[in-house]
Design brief:
alpha+beta; Cathepsin B, Chain A; Jelly Rolls; Recoverin, domain 1; 3 domains; six-stranded antiparallel beta sheet; five-stranded antiparallel beta sheet; 18 helices; 27% helix; disordered C terminus; Peptidase_C2_calpain_cat; calcium ion binding
């Protein structure tokens, strides 16, 4: 469809193209796009974009260092009219490879040259330093013989200033050690990769740090302790360049810096083009975490500290599959917060961290635990009417079965239902759970007395109730207990707290040692199971040993969430 070889007996490229089309669903969705998407897909590397500005001193050094590390480098000349050839032999709207750099001296002037290649294998630049340019005659013979190849092969040399005038972006794909082999020429990269998803009502908090929901976004702690080696180039290490084309602080030997390349990828989006959907606008913020706050950064409760952090860097927010930025940061601790621009946008994402020196990176999450004593709050006496109704229903034994509790709660919650204009009965299953355990910290998070709280606050409410849950489990609970308006009402919250209490109490009876590991038989997973189909499924999927961190999967098997 798009790719063919000049050699009639060479057919691997169209076969590879067909496989690529099958991966994305059709040839149609492959039409157009950015060079770095192909770079990343075919190499597994990390792509970044440098938006060019004329007279930018750091670009030449950036390209030279990238090629020394065996990175893939390309350049594009943007066009609103599709591809067309200019008088100088360039093709606008076309992608070129950058294959080399060289400095030559003409008298007292140093000329910086870039070598480019048209992937067509023909149609070359005809301006200064082209194959037929007379400037080559002023160079020593050995230089001219080493650099100049007078052949219509699509490859040509171009002076940096002409390059900046005609091209708009440089795209670099840094390759991982697995691709480059044991010892790449320019030194390897240290890599961390995280897979995640923004979920509406849970962690899709938007891109504004001042927004109420921003703290719910996924967060990753990055520690950089080893600064880069000094670069002897007069332009400094990378010339202070960032991926947005904005020049950073002037490099100098006084403040050591660490180079880290952050890449955010939207997964599984290209095939949605056939349905009329496109890429979300995404990006990330980088905050510096000072040492006094490090000890607090171990649970979602600390996310309220975000407004106190100093933003060290940020990527551009744009509607592209890959959004990357090369950051030059001082040694220390940082928080990386990837997000979609609009709160509530859902997508799968991959965050990758490439650094020239060693680093550590972890996702901010909470260990699963529960303090059930929080739910045993102070005794609150019933109103007289409810007390009389309780006595009538409970009898001398002062015990209620589920239907009786359902009737009592219906009367007790009638004023709240009238105030919020809601209707319906308390579910019998909820009442069964309340017979086993009851507790709620609901009013604290229902500040407007509306009878509901925002689903983003469910995690905080459960935390106040004594439950410390990791991201995976909290996402499962949020998806189950929120309504279509992303709200959690009183019944839903009590049902959630009751189920968690029952699960933790049941697990605590089977704890084996102090390592948070429980050993259960299939019959012990959920006592009193009557669903033979569920029991059969559990025998196929549930391991004999279940760790508390696997609680989300266990709840799904046990039909809790």
């Amino acid at each position: 469809m798009f790719v063919r070889s000049e050699q009639r007996n060479e057919f691997w490229a169209p076969l590879l193209e067909k496989a690529y089309a099958k991966l994305h669903g059709s040839y149609e969705v492959m039409r157009g796009g950015h060079m770095n998407e192909a770079f990343v897909d075919f190499t597994g590397g990390v792509g970044e974009v440098l938006y060019l500005r004329q007279n930018t001193s750091g670009l030449f050094s950036a390209v030279r260092r990238a090629l020394a590390k065996e990175s893939l480098v390309g350049a594009t000349a943007l066009s609103d009219q599709g591809e067309y050839r200019t008088e100088d032999g360039l093709v606008k709207g076309h992608a070129y490879s950058v294959t080399g750099t060289h400095k030559v001296s003409l008298g007292f002037t140093k000329v910086r040259l870039l070598r480019l290649r048209n992937p067509w294998g023909r149609v070359e630049w005809t301006g200064a330093w082209s194959d037929s340019c007379r400037r080559w005659d002023a160079l020593p013979d050995e230089w001219r013989d080493a650099l100049l190849v007078k052949k219509e092969d699509g490859e040509f040399w171009m002076e940096l200033q002409d390059f900046l005038h005609h091209f708009d972006t440089v795209q670099i794909c840094s390759l991982s050690p697995e691709v480059l082999g044991p010892s790449p020429a320019g030194g390897g990269w240290h890599i961390h990769t995280f897979q995640g998803r923004w979920v509406r009502g849970f962690n899709a908090g938007g891109s504004q740090p001042t927004a109420e929901t921003f703290w719910t976004n996924p967060q990753f702690r990055l520690t950089l302790l080893e600064p880069d080696e000094e670069d002897e180039d007069e332009e400094g290490p990378w010339g202070g360049w960032g991926a947005a084309g904005v020049r950073g602080p002037a490099p100098g030997g006084h403040t050591p810096k660490c180079t880290v390349l952050l890449s955010l990828i939207q997964r599984n989006r290209r095939h949605l083009r056939a349905k009329g959907l496109t890429y979300l606008t995404v990006g990330f913020h980088v905050f510096r975490v000072r040492p006094p706050l490090l000890g607090l950064w171990d649970s979602p409760r600390s996310r309220a500290l975000l407004p106190r952090l100093l933003r060290a860097d940020r990527s551009p927010f744009c509607a592209r599959r890959d959004v990357s930025r090369r950051c030059r940061l001082r040694p220390g601790h940082y928080l990386v917060v990837p997000s979609a621009a609009r709160a509530g946008d859902e997508a799968d994402f991959t965050l990758r961290v490439f650094s020239e020196r060693h680093h550590t990176a972890v996702e901010i999450d909470d260990a699963i635990s529960a303090d059930l004593r929080v739910l045993q709050g102070p005794h609150v006496p019933l109103e007289l009417g409810l007390e009389l109704l309780f006595a009538e229903l409970a009898g001398e034994e002062e015990e209620l079965d589920a239907p009786q509790l359902q009737a009592l709660l219906s009367v007790a919650l009638e004023p709240a239902r009238a105030r919020t204009r809601t209707s319906g009965e308390i579910g019998l299953r909820t009442c069964e759970q309340l017979l086993q355990c009851f507790g709620a910290i609901f009013d604290k998070f229902d500040e407007d007395a509306s009878g509901t709280m925002n689903s983003y606050e469910l995690r905080l409410a459960l935390n106040a109730a004594g439950f410390h849950l990791n991201n995976q489990l909290t996402q499962a609970l949020t998806s189950r207990y929120r309504d279509s308006r992303l709200c959690v009402d009183f019944e839903r919250f009590v049902s959630c707290a009751a189920q968690l209490t029952c699960i933790f109490r049941h697990c605590s009876q089977h704890l084996d040692g102090g390592e948070g590991v429980i050993c259960l038989t299939h019959r012990q997973v959920r006592p009193g199971w009557r669903d033979e189909g569920a029991q059969a499924r559990s025998r196929e999927t549930l391991p004999q040993t279940c760790c508390l961190p696997s609680l989300a999967q266990w709840m799904e098997v046990a039909n809790f969430a």
